[in-house]
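Marked as duplicate of an earlier ticket. Keeping the data here for the record.
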Amino acid sequence: MFRTTESKIFTNPLFERTNQNAKSIIQEIDQQSDTYFKNSSEDEFSEYLLSKYEISNSLKIYWEETQIEIEEVEISGSNLPPTFDVSNPNLRVKKKKIKFLVPYSGDGDILFFKPSNTIYMSSMGGSPYRTIEYLVFSFIDLYDNSENIDREFENSKNEFNRRYNDLKKEISIYNQELPGFIKSEIKKKIHRIRNFDEYKSKFRFPIKNDNNTPESLKIPKVVKERKIIPKPKILESGKESEERYISEDDYQRILSILQECGRNWESHPDTYKGKNEETLRSQLIYVLAPNIQGVVAGEAYNKKGKTDIAIKYNSTNLFIGECKIWKGAKKFTETIDQILGYLTWRDSKAAILVFVPNKDISSVVKETKKVIEEHPNYVRTLDKINSGWSNYRFHLENDKRSYLTIAVQLYHMPEL
């Protein structure tokens, strides 16, 4: 049985989220100091707000990989439909319960929302909900007719896709209108500042400063790059839980930061020449830390040992990474085993970062691909970003129902 928290889908209208975003944007603009807008580009703040409040839709659903679980359940005679002639309402009848498990990747939290102003005439059977890895549709086979259950699932699948497509359209419209809304609110703020400055300029005496601190030192910093902020998991009640996770978009952002560091190494060999694994790992941590709201640690303890890089929120590992110098297929297999040994079912995102000293990088790319696809825990390849970076789905040791994502990045460093 898979171990995950169940979350309802299509529960809250999306407009509640978008309206709250609009209020938060206006509040952030209002709270930003006048000095900032006088000394900085409004585009900078606009880009920051856009990256923070844009709603991502990175969800991918793998209908073709659907699996089922079958179990027996007891049903009270009083809950059976009228087609059953049950004289004793206290009778307990055993029937089969079929669960359709549909794997997905990406940020499943988007399914918490529903299209705002759409009424659906068709119901969606199967009492659908989602776990960390699956969309789940559950049916009771009252008449021992598997073909009928298959048809019910297909109907539910079609209805799900109808609602999800409407949701995606609404998200797309929101994201398209967001830049214009942000710029409009910033211009309102600037207009208010100018009107106030004009008003102050009409007095004969200078305006007293709040303190003697130079104005240049009071300019608040705005994040130029999108800051990675662990997101709270949403409970069935709609409230935020204390538990945090890294979204699919933020995971890819972390990997992009690592990739950029690797490319800098490749372009400037002096930055890595003569360095060992520990020093290179420290450079990666140094680059990651300013971009993440959380603790980025090296040599962090996790399950069976210490992993090279861990991004933590309180005591929870949100991301872990293992750094290795390439020493052949056997050692690379051991690295995969090692990182799988470190991971628990809660650690769903990880990376293996390989420093390749070989002059021929292409043969190493082929060899790593072969090792991964032949590994007993390999499930499928998710994405190939470039020749030196791919994302893979693995299952945990001794648990084929608990999945995780491992990115593999190769950095060509022949003078290492």
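See parent ticket for discussion. The CA atoms of residues 310 and 320 lie 4 Å apart.
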